[in-house]
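Batch manifest, entry 17 of 40.
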Amino acid sequence: MMKLFRPDSFRPHLLLALGFLLVGIVLVNLVICDKTASPAHFSTPDIRQEESLPGGSSSIPYPAIASLEIPSPELTDSAKSLFYAGKALAHQPWVKAPTATTARDGLGPLYNARSCLGCHVKGAKGIVPDDPNKPFTNGFVRLSIPGYDPVLGVIPEPTYGDQLQTESTSLANQLGLALNQTGDGEVKPEAKVFLQWQFYIQIYPDGSAVELRQPKIDIRDLGYGPFHDVTLFSLRNAPAIHGMGLIEAIPQSEIDALADPDDSNNDGISGRVNLVWSPYKDKLIPGRFGHKASKAEIATVVAAAFANDIGISNPIFPQQPCTSKQAACLNSLTGNDDLGYEIPQDLLELVINFTRNISVPKQRSFPLKGRTAFYQSGCQQCHQPQFRTGKDQSFAHLNDQLIWPYSDFLLHDMGDQLTDGRPDFDASRNEWRTPPLWGLGLNKQINGSLNLLHDGRARSVEEAILWHGGEATNARTKFMQLAAEERQQLVQFVEAL
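Output type: C-alpha cells
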C-alpha cells in the first residue's frame, strides 16, 4: 500500500529520524511486494522504426505546437474542408434560444460549457484549478445513487441527474450574481464546484520525496435542494481528444485478446471489457472511450457531450438534462428545429468526423534507458504499446495502420487510492480504463495543463505513477526502486510518446 504522509504533520526536530523510519517501512513493503510480483523481470523489445509514428499515417510533427486539433495529413482536400467545418462547430459558443442566429442557439438551459472545446482546451486535457476558490470549469462531477440501469449504466441522482451542471442561461448566472438573485421563472445553475486539495508526501527507498495531492470535491450553492442521502460523486477532468478515430478503428477482437478477467496467467493483471449501452445498435456492446470505458462509439461521445455538457438536443439524445424536480428547466424555450433537435444530424456528423480525424503527434526524442525502464517496470502490461487497425473504415487513413497508443482500453482495478466509489455499467468503484499515453507530454506546452488521472490530481507523470495501486502496484513498486536518474528517464520516455 502507498505510504502517504501530510507535510504539515512533520516537526523539524523529528524530520530526519522520521525520514529514516519511513524509508525502512517502504523498503519492507517493497520486499513484500517483490515476493508476489510475477513475472519478476520483463524483457525490452527492440526499437522499431514505426514507433516514431504512433498514429501511423495520421502522425504529424509538433515542433512548436499551439493545438492538438490538427487534421490527419492523409485526409483528402474535400475531407479536410469538412474537418475544418466540424472544428468551427466544435469551437463555436452556443447562445440562449430564441435568437436570430438559429444555427447556434439552444444553449442550456443547464450546461457546463458553451462549446465542445470549452473543456478540451485546444484539444488537450482540461485545466484543473490549484486555487480552492476558483471554480472547476474544464470538467464536471458525475452523480448517481446505488443501483444499475442497463441503458444509463447508473441510477441518476433524483434531483440533479447523473451530471452536475454548474451553469445556466439565467441572467443572474451570466452576470456572475449570487444564486438567490435568479429571477422568477429563470433556471438556476445546479451548483458551483470547487476543489479543496489535500497534500501528502511520498518517500522513495533512496530517501528522496515527492509531494502528491488529492482533490476533495467542494460543492457550493445547491440550486434545487439537498442531494439524496446515498449520492455517489465522481470528479472527471476532460481528456485530450486526438487519435480517437484510430482507437475506434481497432478491431474489438484485438482488445478482447488482452482481457484476462480471472487473471488466469497469474501475472496480477486482470483487464476487463466494460459492456455499455449503444444508442446506435440498441444493445450492450464493449466500451472503449471515457475514463471508465463507458462509451462505445465516437458518435455517442460527441452526442452525449452536446446534450449533457452544453444542453444541446440532438438526434441521439433529444432530451435536455432537466430532471422532474426542475420545472423552470423543463419549461424553458428551446432552439429545436422542426424535427425537435437543436443540432441536426448533418451538423452533428461534422463534429463527429472532426473528432474522428484529428492527427496524433509524432514521438519526440527520449533517453533509451527510459524506454528500458518502462518495459522492465512492467508498465506495458496495461499500457499495451501497439495495435493494428481494421481494414473496413470509412476513412482510408484509418485502415490497416500500425499504431502505438500505449493502452489496452480495458478496465483495471487501480486500488483504493484512486477509487471514486462509483460503478459505471460493469466498471467497479476501483476500476478505470487504461488511458492512452500518446501525446501526453505535449499537454502542458499546449494549454498549460498536465493534469493527469481521471480527476486531474497528478501534476506530472511521476505523480500519476505514484498514485497507481491495485493491479499496478508491482509496476509502481519497480518504478520506486529505480535510481532517481532512471525514474526521470522513464518519465521522459512517457512524455515523448
